[in-house]
Design a protein that fits this description.
mainly alpha
Length: about 140
């Protein structure tokens, strides 16, 4: 009985959209971080490891920024912030390809991971609100 309820709830339209969106965000996160790590190994091989950990600190800062400020925003402004940070993330990834500006890779790398942290935090809060009390969240 529980299995049927679980699968019926799992394949609801809302949950399928959430699952696909979360999968896309995780794919983009892993792809972007892998790309930035590979690029930093070529650009500055002597400091690639420290750049890797610095990227994660910027990711954490972005995640915490939205976690702290997100409660004070209306739902309309949350949508606008999500769109704005998505565009900023895309722009910084594109700019990180530029070799014409010296040092641009490091700045855009840190900004991209910061924006990715904000996007991750926004999506986590959306998932938490939409799956509250759901069988899909599991139990401890």
């Amino acid at each position: 009985m529980v299995n049927r309820l679980f699968f019926r709830e799992l394949i609801s339209k809302k949950n399928l959209i959430l699952i696909l969106s979360f999968s896309l965000l995780m794919f983009e996160s892993m792809t972007a971080l892998t790309f930035l790590d590979a690029r930093s190994a070529v650009s500055a091989s002597e400091s690639a490891v420290s750049l890797h950990y610095a990227d994660y600190l910027f990711f954490l800062a972005g995640y915490l920024l939205y976690a702290v400020l997100g409660r004070q925003l209306s739902s309309e402004s949350k949508e606008n912030i999500f769109i704005a940070f998505s565009l900023l993330f895309l722009m910084t990834i594109i700019l990180s390809q530029s070799d014409s500006i010296s040092g641009a890779f490091f700045i855009t790398s840190f900004l991209a991971t910061f924006f990715l942290g904000v996007l991750g935090s926004i999506f986590y809060s959306v998932m938490a609100v939409n799956l509250k009390g759901s069988l899909c969240t599991g139990g401890v």
